[in-house]
Specification:
Chain lengths: 566, 255, 429
């Protein structure tokens, strides 16, 4: 039995409606409890800002594509190299750090839970292997279904229950957490070197449209009773004028779930572009934010771009090829049989570049124009918009008009005419930042009932204490202090253990992996479906028995059983 | 100020020594420096007999002279920005990495990656330079971006790979793939070399001898006079939509 | 007992449809595997227990003694080399990286003598690739360049290309064209629709010429390039451009010949160029069943796929300097731990001379060429036969190998974990 008491914590805990109250947090064996004995170890937070551990609901940190980003970038590894020290392993890398590098840096910033944004089912084992070496965060994986043959066939046949059954079988087999659609239909078309232009464009051969894929899978998601909603990377990422396609996609979504959104639209910055080509490229953050304001069934994340060097990586293979043709930098692509694909290229976002400057503004605008912080979460789509170590700067920008103006003065001068940002006065407050970096993320992922994103009794004791007294700092002026505090916690507590202290990680840790197992009726068990089995054996190059990820790959196994309605 | 470092004979002499601390400006604060033999950190005077004559206030006035069996001494002059290093014998890999100013003179041969990613200053090698002289690093970063490298002997393979600026001159022959991925700067080979300018984008490559295994993707333009040589001018590498200039006295295709 | 869907621990194809018949803890029959795989499953005579060189003789020692010997050797070394790793499971490779970090040594795998150049090329220009099933189901053009699958990857043709059925191909055998490019007429060339014979050392020039032709700059190209006529080059370029889905598979004939990684870079740039016209992919024919896994493990743990030098605490990577062959040839290490490979069978003589001069410990189930250079050899279970664990197929698909029989041998992971724990204790003291 280990007890810990955090005294004098100045707590913001939005999921419990707590906004800046001084309180003690009692921890017993990794969980938050009402009280602990006098024997408990005591940490005096001395009135410092105390939040639930950070949750990142969309980041790329583990798996085939991330590792290929590392593999192809020895130049990236020249930065961020640290030696082995005590229990800590050596790290390397800046935009695509090693697993230990990711884990330690996230921990220092107070993050304790991460969702890997894209896992190809066939290569799921790889993601889980890397999770094991991401010791200081609990992890979960979005599982890619955007180009799944069996699902597209079921959609063509109008059989949503079968769609749900295939997803259920796959999630259970690959230990996935949620459904990810990346450029639905486009990744299959890309295996012919083609793409789909928007949601009404049929996928070659399968003759289903992205709109049909999105709608059927959203319905299937609810039939399966999954904790998270469908997680959508819209078609047409990164092209001028794509905002109308984004609005069209969001418009497909009914409100089907009382507890959470029905659709999570990811890195919307990349999908909020106006103009007809790069010459008249401009921001369309306003119509997107207005649209989302009126629809509680939608939650999005920013996908903020920050200036500097990074590596872009996504399952959206055709988009990466278009980027490659623009930049002519190195380009990798990896199509996955019967399922999906991916692409990677390194990029540099430059202040002096007009398009990059507009992209930078759009992300901020989405966060500032969307009324409810629960509907626009803070991400960079790490590392696509920027490495996650930039989050504190983004917090600074959202909390300070002065900082935004100072930055705005350094970017391409023509930006002003193309974006609404300079006219936006809103400055987010501490509570809103807490929503956008943990409470909202946990709610959107549907893991608040599993003890994530809040500090209520029974919750996992994941706590971030930042070296900052909010009564003494005016974020709109002292933004540098805000950035410094969010860059380096005073204490990061994970499952009741202090894992990081003032910028230094202290322990090796061991993560837990969340995954879902929908319970379906016998008739919808794809493991016994003759047609499914026959096609699997004919067209996959891995035997069906060798496909499922064994439980050996789960460090701490947090299986979520759901009652499916099929 | 003249700093003389005479390498002491060592028991496990085959383990290389990494000595990026041997840079003129570091001696302004004395000789209390550290070097590495494998995974062991050693004081400079455990590896060298150190003697100092005179004093100096700025790196430009410091000369470091290295003597003894220095062919396994790596990274000497890394990030050097002024002053002078004279190596009386051979020098190990990565001499003058990232150098931006000053002069390094090697009287013997230099091992691989001499002047890698060099940005300025001068390197003179009286003997031969091994592979990747004045090149870039793994991952296709720019090679040399400025300064001059002059090799009086021969150069190995991948000479001036990815060079983007500055001048490299080799008086002897060079190996295979001289000036590969060139994107700027000037490469001059007085002797022969193999497959010069492969995949080049920009820059100028001169071969006063014969280009063996000449690549088929250079377009012949005519002849030019250059420094007293009549050279055939090519443009390319067209496989890479390149706009580089390749001048050779003579060439042979692998046809 | 028959074990179904066993995974073959021989080559990078990692065939997972093998049936192994076991009787009395012995493999008696193997179905579906090629000859190479069958031989591996049937096994040879294993070493019974750890052995220590004692003058001119071998002395039997216990596992504890052997592990202690290795730990002491690594701890006292100034630049230990931890080499091999392609013939073991990922979980053992992870322990290997931790060990290299701990003793500040160099960790390298067999890619430095096989597809290391391919990795260097990928690091310069990237890699447009795909899983094997994408090719099987779609490709109407397959090019084997400097690779001879009939010899080295016998089931590659039947499972994925020439003789495989494909979802989008009505009659795969008829509709799928195969081109072989090589310096000699290999067995695979005999089953090709088109054979391109190149003079030795001419691959780079031919690839450059093809890139130019694909761009429509045929006029500049000389009448023949490295023995290939311009007409044939134009024909090949057209076959590529007109394919719906093309796939290039290259082997050591391209990576290990003159120009090495520049050859691969050129091939990748040809594929990137063709991607502007149609769908094209390129992939390496990886040799050892888990060499790609070793690259993957190293990459997520150290940032680099092979040739990682931890002497200075942080990871440093420079193939040509931090790779086993170069280190041994230059005598730059003072101890070696060999796991899952047989360097003495492949390395140049100069390397072996140094290997003979320094202490060497090997983990291997069988006596092999490297045994002669060892001070200690520790027999272990064979991954895929009496040990299970993760392996990565040549296309990056991870598969868990099955255990088809039970023995008392410890796995590589178990032996290395003990070694690592001993070293950690010693360092903490």
């Amino acid at each position: 039995m280990t007890e810990l008491l955090v005294k004098n914590a100045y707590v913001i805990d939005p999921l419990r409606g707590i906004n800046a109250e001084t309180m003690d947090i009692a921890i017993l064996d990794g969980k938050i409890v009402e009280e602990v004995s006098d024997a408990a170890e005591v940490i005096d937070a001395r009135g410092m800002l105390t939040l639930p551990g950070g949750v990142d609901s969309h980041t790329h940190i583990c798996g085939t594509k991330v590792n290929f980003g590392r593999y192809m970038s020895p130049e990236d590894m020249r930065a961020g190299r640290t030696p082995r020290q005590g229990p800590l392993h050596a790290t390397s890398g800046y935009s695509v750090p090693t697993t230990y590098g990711n884990s330690y840096r996230y921990s220092v910033m107070g993050y304790t839970t991460l969702l890997e944004g894209a896992m190809a089912p066939l290569e799921a084992r790889h993601t889980h292997e890397e999770f094991i070496y991401t010791p200081l965060q609990d992890t979960m994986a979005n599982t890619l279904f955007d180009g799944n043959w069996a699902i597209m066939e079921a959609i063509r046949d109008g059989d949503v229950k079968r769609v749900a059954a295939i997803i259920g079988w796959t999630l259970r087999a690959v230990k996935g957490f949620a459904i990810k659609l990346t450029n639905p239909g486009g990744t299959e078309a890309w295996q012919w070197g083609k793409n789909v232009s928007c949601i009404r464009d049929p996928v070659p051969y399968f003759e289903v449209t992205p709109a049909e894929i999105i709608r059927s899978i959203v319905e299937a998601n609810e039939l399966l009773g999954l904790p998270h909603s469908v997680h959508l990377h819209c078609n047409n990422l990164g092209t001028p004028g794509n905002y109308s396609c984004t609005l069209g996609s969001l418009g497909l979504i009914p409100d089907l779930n009382k507890k959470r959104q029905t659709l999570y639209a990811t890195h919307v910055q990349f999908h909020a572009y106006g103009g007809s080509d790069w010459k008249d490229f401009c921001s369309k953050s306003e119509p997107i934010a207005r649209f989302v304001d009126m629809r509680p069934q939608i939650v999005m994340d920013m996908g903020q771009v920050m200036f500097g060097r990074t590596t872009t990586m996504t399952a959206d293979g055709p988009m990466e090829f278009n980027l490659y043709r623009l930049h002519h930098e190195k380009w990798s692509n990896h199509d996955v049989e019967l399922e999906t694909g991916s692409g990677i290229i390194p990029v540099i976002y430059r202040r002096k570049n007009l398009v990059n400057s507009i992209m930078w503004a759009i992300g901020l605008e989405l966060a500032l124009l969307t009324k409810s912080p629960w509907q626009c979460l803070l991400t960079t789509d790490n590392p696509n918009g920027a490495p996650f170590v930039k989050y504190p700067e983004i917090i600074g920008l959202l909390m300070s008009k002065k900082y935004r103006d100072a930055e705005f003065a350094t970017i391409h001068p023509d930006t002003e005419a193309r974006v609404p940002l300079p006219a936006i006065e809103r400055e987010l407050d501490w509570y809103e930042i807490a929503v956008m970096t943990r409470a909202g993320q946990a709610k959107a992922l549907g893991i608040q009932d599993l003890g994530k994103g809040h500090l209520g009794p029974g919750a996992d004791a994941d706590v971030a204490i930042y070296p900052l007294k909010i009564g003494e700092v005016d974020p709109s002026v002292d933004y540098q202090k805000v950035i410094d505090a969010f860059s380096r916690t005073e204490y990061t507590i994970k499952r009741g253990t202090v894992v990081a202290r003032r910028g230094e990680c202290l322990v090796d840790g061991s993560n837990a992996t969340f995954w879902v197992r929908p319970k379906v009726s016998e008739a919808y068990d794809m493991g016994k479906d003759p047609d499914f089995i026959e096609k699997f054996d004919r067209y996959y190059t891995v035997r069906m028995r060798n496909y499922p990820v064994q439980e050996e790959y789960l460090n701490r196994n947090r299986c979520i059983e759901t009652e499916a309605r099929i | 100020m003249k700093v003389t470092l005479a390498m002491k004979p060592a028991a496990r002499s085959f383990i290389p020594i990494e000595a990026e601390s041997i840079v003129p400006k570091n001696f302004l604060d004395g000789t209390d420096l550290l070097v590495w033999r494998g995974n062991r950190e050693l004081r400079l005077d455990e590896v060298f007999s150190v003697s100092v004559e005179g004093d100096a206030d700025r790196a430009e006035d410091v000369e470091v002279v290295l003597s003894g069996e220095t062919s396994r001494l790596k990274r000497v002059g890394e990030y050097m920005d002024g002053g002078r290093i004279t190596i009386l014998g051979n020098i190990g890999m990565h001499c003058g990495n990232f150098m931006s100013g000053g002069t390094i003179e090697v009287h013997g041969n230099a091992d691989g990656w001499l002047g890698r990613e060099m940005a300025g200053g001068t390197i003179v090698c009286r003997g031969d330079a091994a592979d990747y002289c004045a090149s870039g690093y793994r991952g296709g970063r720019k090679g040399m971006t400025g300064g001059t490298v002059e090799v009086f002997g021969r150069a190995g393979d991948f000479l001036a790979e990815s060079i983007a600026g500055g001048t490299v001159t080799v008086h002897g022959n060079a190996g295979d793939m001289a000036g590969a991925e060139m994107r700027g700067g000037t490469l001059v080979v007085h002797g022969d070399c193999r497959r010069p300018g492969a995949n080049m984008k920009e820059g100028s490559c001169y071969v006063y001898g014969t280009a063996q295994g000449m690549l088929p993707t250079f377009r012949k333009i005519g002849t030019v006079q250059h420094e007293g040589h009549t050279l055939i001018r090519f443009a390319g590498d067209i496989a890479n939509r390149g706009k580089g200039n390749l001048f050779v006295k003579d060439y042979e295709y692998l046809d | 007992m028959i074990v179904k869907d066993a995974v073959c621990p021989f080559c990078g194809c990692l065939c997972d449809d093998i049936e192994v018949e076991v009787e009395d803890d012995r493999v008696v029959a193997v179905t579906n595997a090629c000859e190479l795989g069958t031989t591996k499953f049937m096994g040879e005579k294993r070493m019974k227990n750890p052995i220590l060189r004692d003058g001119d003789r071998w002395r039997d020692i216990t596992y504890d003694e052997a592990v202690q010997y290795a730990a002491d050797m690594l701890l006292s070394a100034e630049r230990p080399l931890l080499y091999g790793w392609s013939g073991t499971h990922g979980e053992a490779q992870c322990v290997g990286v931790h060990m290299a970090e701990l003793v500040r040594g160099v960790i390298d795998n067999t890619s430095s003598v096989c597809h290391g150049p391919s990795i260097l090329a990928i690091q310069e220009v990237g890699h447009p690739g795909c899983t094997l099933g994408v090719v099987k189901n779609r490709a109407d053009l397959v090019i084997y360049w400097g690779s001879n699958p009939i010899d080295a990857h016998p089931r590659h043709l039947s499972r994925y290309t020439r003789y495989a059925e494909g979802f989008f191909l009505e009659n795969a055998f008829r509709d799928r064209k195969v081109i072989v490019v090589d310096i000699r007429k290999t067995e695979t060339a005999n089953i090709a629709d088109e054979f391109v014979r190149i003079k030795p050392g001419g691959d780079y020039a031919v690839l450059s010429a093809l890139r130019a032709i694909v761009q429509g700059k045929t006029d500049t190209i000389p009448r023949t390039v490295a023995g290939v006529t311009r007409e044939q080059l134009v024909r090949v370029a057209n076959l590529c451009k007109n394919a719906k889905f093309g796939a290039v598979y290259f082997g050591l004939g391209l990576t290990m010949t003159r120009g090495k990684y520049k050859n691969i870079r050129n091939a990748i740039e040809l594929v990137s160029e063709l991607s502007r016209h149609t769908k094209f992919t390129i992939s390496a024919m990886r040799g050892h069943y888990n060499v790609y896994g070793s690259n993957e493990v190293n990459t997520w743990m150290t940032g680099y796929p092979f040739g990682i030098d931890y002497s200075r605490g942080i990871a440093f990577y420079n193939p040509g300097e931090t790779t086993a062959v170069d280190i041994l040839a230059r005598k730059e290490c003072d101890a070696a731990l060999i796991v899952g490979s047989d360097p003495a069978a492949h390395f140049p003589r100069k390397c072996l001379e140094h290997l003979a001069d320094i202490p060497v410990v090997q983990l291997d189930p069988y006596p092999n060429a490297t045994t002669a250079f060892c001070n200690v050899q520790i027999p272990v279970a064979v991954t895929g036969i009496d040990a299970e664990g993760t392996a990565y197929r040549m296309d990056g698909v991870p598969i868990r190998t099955r255990k088809v029989l039970s023995t008392d041998y410890l796995s590589d992971r178990e032996v290395l974990s003990r070694m690592c724990a001993l070293m950690q204790e010693a360092l903490e003291r």
